[in-house]
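re: ur question from earlier - yeah i can do the single chain one, its not a big deal. heres the input i used so u can compare w yours
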Amino acid sequence: MSFVSGQFLLFVAVVVVLFYVVPQKYKWVLLLVASYSFYLFGGVKPVIFILLSTFSTFGAGLMMGRYEKKQKKEKRRILVLLLLLNFGILLLLKYYNFFAENIDPLFRTFEYDISMPLVNIMLPLGISFYTFQAMGYAIDIYRGKYEPETNLAHFALFVSFFPQIMQGPISRYNQLAPQFFAEHRFEYKKVKFGIQLMLWGFFKKMVIADRMAILVDTVFPYYYGYDGDQVFVAMFCYAIQIYADFSGGIDITRGLAGAMGIELVQNFQRPYFAITVPEYWRRWHMSLTNWMRDYVFFPLTLSKMSNKLGRCSRKKFKGVVGRQIPSYLPTFIVFFLIGVWHGASWGYIAFGFYNGTVIVLGMMLKPLFEAVNKKLGIKEGNTLFRIWQIIRTFLIMMVGKTLVRAVSVKDGILMTLIAFDPARWDIPHLPWNMVGMGLGKNQMLVLMISCIIFFFVSFLQENGLQMRETISGQRTRVRWTIYLLGIAAVLIFGIYGPGYTAGEFIYRNF
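and the output i got, formated as tokens:
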């Protein structure tokens, strides 16, 4: 069931109304039934996998809970088996065909023909999200962060909560689960704010992202036939498209949950205002980044091997580099995992290594950059310098995203070379050339106005303005004018496909 379909809106309306009608003690039951009903729309077979993940994690949690804190080995065995099972299923379903397609040519170079068969497997909805969410719970139980859940149905709701099942955010048990069983009375403000956030999400997704998708889909496969400035525009548009698409979906998710009084963790914090790549990743897909930080990066940097490497590096290398070396490998591992988490292709692997390389180089060269800035008299708080940092970071991330969206990694590199080659630019004719990139003049005008609104709202939020609170403080006429304009923009300017269903969210595939 698509988030941008009339069927979904009807489903949501019924669930929210019933949520405030049924008695308090049955609200969580309603959410559980609604979650599995939503999941069943995708077919019966995928439910087997989410049930397997739910049962295995619940059982492992109870088993680990029976051991004392000192009995680390026993708990570790259970955790390792659970991780192997769940991540093994994820790897099998999501990455088997990629492995099979690439292992055959490798063996043929040594004159072996293993001919691994390809399997037509339908990827279960949200498997990457609910697997990481469930495994985060299991690791927390192993660490003794909280007691294991003893009610299977309660735990099943945590794993399958339908607003976030499609594209996150990846929630932590102690933050989300207690909210299901807290008292939720009807509050007009919460419902209103939830609907407003959903409307903003629909605007970003259907008016901006899906319109930009037309331009991106037109240029990317045939980039070699376009001027450098046109390729640059297409790369720029894809960076905006995926942000508007993903953050728009998260706004719909958080707005829906918020309308029922359930607060989901924030997943975006205006990442394109970041001044460095590490800051960008602290603002983009925050729940995944935080998951990797807590369950991968910190354990690796605090391991015995890392401590030993740290002692050796500090002896051989003086200064900042000697202290940083133990964090280089964990950084590459984290971004490799972030890359392959998104999908099974060389583009995602390249994307992971690209980000890891940029961040490690930034760490290594930071003293040099600071020395140059000092020499030039550039202060960190300088407005023009900050604008340059924002543009620089955006361009770095734009190139990384191109590696994923291009037909191949090689095409992504060639696109980047063309886009940043001044000799390939035709600035005087760019406004007219853009009309030949899949969108007509009126479509371009709508896109430009929508992007200006998007940027203006983001700029105000970045500077501390609370948009929903600000709108609520306006007169009734002003408020309803804004609401009706938003609804009209989505209905009139939203991009619709066959059967009047908007395009699917990009992150639904992850």
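The mean pLDDT is 89. not sure if urs matches, ping me
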